[in-house]
Amino acid sequence: MAPSPHPIPVLLDVDTGVDDALAILFAVAHPGIHVLGISCVAGNAALPQVVQNTLGVLDAAGAAPIPVAGGAHRPLINPARDASHVHGPDGLGGIELEPTTRATYEVDGHPVAAIEMMRQLLLASDEPVTIVALAPQTNLALLLRAYPEVAPKIARVLFMGGSASVGNATAVAEFNVWHDPEAAAIVLDSGVSTFMYGLDVFNRVAVPLEKAVELQASTRRAERLAGHLISHRMGVGAGKEPVYTGLIGDAGALCALVDPDALRTELVPVFVELAGATRGQTVVDRRRFPGEDSMHGLHEQAGYTEVALEVDAERYIDLYLSTIATLA
Ligand code: RIB
Ligand code: CA
To answer: Relative to the CA of 307, which of 139, 161, 249, 256 has its CA 20 to 30 Å away?
Structure first.
């Protein structure tokens, strides 16, 4: 792995979550990433569980102290929806982490909410910061609404979410965007540069089962954890039976951060559908010509987003495994 000359300053926003855990291991291990802080949000699990999981994974990674703060307990409008059928009731598929001694971010002995921590870290940074959002974008939307002055300090928002093809939560909507569609719409319309690592690539990057089993027997704690987490990445087969997927999931978005050349992307208009049966769909306009909608003045105004459409999956698996192999 070629070391990056200057690590990219990053704020992570997570709903840890099996694959957020895989992403955190990668983020703290990769020399090209400097994690300034981690904000937590309800999504794959309830917020208190997300916070505990995040602190525990940082322990398992042997990470240096990193500020972690809890944020939104629920989406802007939707109720929080249970994702325990994917991530287990504890968000980590029943994998027990050692009790953590880490605490959440405090100032003057008082816990600081996620958007306040994000504001402080963004304004204190000497250079623009990339926000890597691996969860419903509730915290980001609240941040941009409460503190619009931080926008110039955001290099871009690289988010796992959305799809230019099929969904997973619904036929057309991906979970993170579906969970809080208004939040995703606020971020996409904010004027901040955005990059979508959606299901089109997310569903491609998978570790073979034999490799996951090998990792479980590693002498290194972080690799053992990764092996168990990857083994928990199950899908549903045609007969509704559980099938191994081996997806590294959210961790792929961090691979995209440090190795964008393994992706084919298009810069295209994207908006979030907010109503009806397609609520939560990211409408990715890949047309190369003006349609009837724009000819008749009916065009939906949508900001441009760089959308990842194809990935060299083996390259990301190699990158992922070689990076976490550097952890103890
Ligand atoms: O749709 C994919 C998202 O939901 C990821 O963020 C992952 O954590 C999953 O639960
Ligand atoms: Ca997630």
So the answer is: 139
